[in-house]
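In response to reviewer comment 3 from the previous cycle, which asked for concrete evidence that the modeling workflow produces usable outputs, we include below a single protein chain processed end to end. The sequence was submitted unchanged, and the resulting structure tokens are shown without manual editing.
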Amino acid sequence: MNSHVKINIMNKKIFFLVLIQVCMYATTAFAQTQPCTNTINTCVQDQHVDNGTTDWHTSHGVLFFSNNNAPTSTGVGSQSLSMWSYLNTGCGAFTCYNFEKDTPYRICFWVRNNSGWPGNGFGRLYVYAANNLTSTGNSGPATLPSVSQQLIDQSYYGPPQSNVNPNTGATDWQFISVTFTPNGNYNCLWFYPMNPMGPPPPGPAQYNINYILEVDDIRVTKEPAPYNLSSSSNKDTITGCDDSVQLIISGMPGNTIATWIPNVKSLNASRSVVIAKPCSTTIYRIEITDPNSPCGTCIREVLYDTIYVTPWSDTSRIIRPANAVPCLSTLNLDYNAPTTCSHIGFNDYEWVDPNGHPYTGKTQSIPGVYSSLSGEWTLRIWNSKKGCHEELKFPIVIGSCCISKPDFTFTGNTNPITFNNTGTGITIHTGTLWSFDDGTTSDQFSPTHTFNFVRDTVINVCLTMLYKDSQGHTCCDRKCKPVPVKANPCAVIADFTFTPVAGAIDEFDFTDASIGSGTLCQYDWEIHDGPPFMIPMGTIPTLRYKFTTPGPWYVCLHVTNCLYDSLGNEIARCSTKICKWIGAGGGLPSQNPSVGIREHRDAAEQNGHVLSVYENPNHGSFTVQLIGREGNYNVIVRDQQGREVYHVPHTFGETPVKIVLSNASAGIYSVEVTNDNEKFTQQISVIR
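The workflow returned the following structure tokens.
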């Protein structure tokens, strides 16, 4: 029956009803009683599975032959056994073979489940040595025939053809090879596709409904006598500098040959005497076969032998720096070679750095090393007698190559001033920060900056340069220089004083104390006495005011600075303001920042800035002020990777907010002051 014939689901039931009848009632040439009378002592070979011979008999049921051959089957007319199992019945096949008690045998065969319809069960095959089996031709019961037997193998448990996926490279035929020692004398080799204890585990009963097993290329032979493997030098441990060791297999028959894995140099035709040159401890697998035996591909004696190799080289002999090597210095390497391997020469040494670059020679002097050479180095020592290396791993540490040298020049003392960055550094430049001593900063490499001072002055401008090396180490340095700055003609600093009127607790005299580069041309007083209101006073810098609500009170002065040409025409104006708390008896302590802080604030306002951050650079502590803004804002500080290092809500007014970054490392950070409607950002530099 061809296993590739396809039957549709409707015809499947009819097919198996007919099959049951065949297995139960058919009579063939195998239905006659025929005991095993002629025993076989040679290898059971593929040609015994042939429809034209009587070497195979049925113990029960009906035996078929299939043209589906195993991968190793050759020859015209060779076939495979085809046995059925259905519900609790089945077919069994046996051939005559003389098994001798206590004698080891090797049995090998190919098997597959040829059931080709979905829902067929997994095939289970039992192989026995048995006595006095006879051909019955009847459908057998669910139990084995009542004969003496010994189980040889039950390892095959294969899927039906419908479960085999050829796209995955799955194969249907499976090769089984087992060793078996009879506990008595038997005269039959018996194949039985049935599970006498119920359905094959782990499936339910319906998986034992039906399947077809095909068995092919069945071979049986006695196991060969054991062999002995020894070393001619009687040692299983050699040093890495030893040239070789001779290995000998004793007791090999003259018609056999040894295959060594890994390969060795053979000294005779049978490869029983060989020379091994292991570079390291090696386990040799030796397969002994008879190439002239028809069972030679099935019957193998496998031996193992281990040659332990003690390395000749030793990491402790490497001469290298004990501590970290300074960046850009010279790295010196050498090897204190023992005298036991004198054939290893100067150029048989190769040093390999962590980047895979080799340096040939026993001694090395490598100048100008960078931190990229930090890590695991390898020393390879070539053994020409064996044709292999010994490798030693060891670490080398190169100190950080991160160097920052900031410097700059500037163009005169005009306003604005252009700054030229002339700084240098080694490795990767990651950031630049200028601090202009007026509350503003810049991250441009060479910026141009306008200063807003009301008088000529000398300020302290600082440049910070950040670098990073290949190992992730960061470094920065700061360079500060005095810079003379001309006054900005339109700059103005607002200020005023206040004194209580004699005998009064709610009336005050307010006097302007502002300064500017031009002409202070307008004063507008803002009184917070209940709802705030403005008192435009023109050029009047003084004010007396009596409050009508309980104090303390809040008063602001808006000051405007005007610039005129030679004809008296106004050509520009700029303004700023200052606010103070006023209280009875001289007022509350002023919450206004110092004059230096006011200059930062006023300069920021003149430049159109709302956010003022100072000191900058700093050591992790700085001040944040909003110009012309009041209310609740979130202050967020992020590092260069965008990670938050500070996130706290603050209320802003005239009083600046102090921020402390307790755990921030040196580097450039961004400061964000934000609410639901607006966000202001400025960079700062933290130095340690």
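The radius of gyration is 50 Å. We consider this sufficient to address the reviewer's concern, and the full set will be provided in the supplementary archive.
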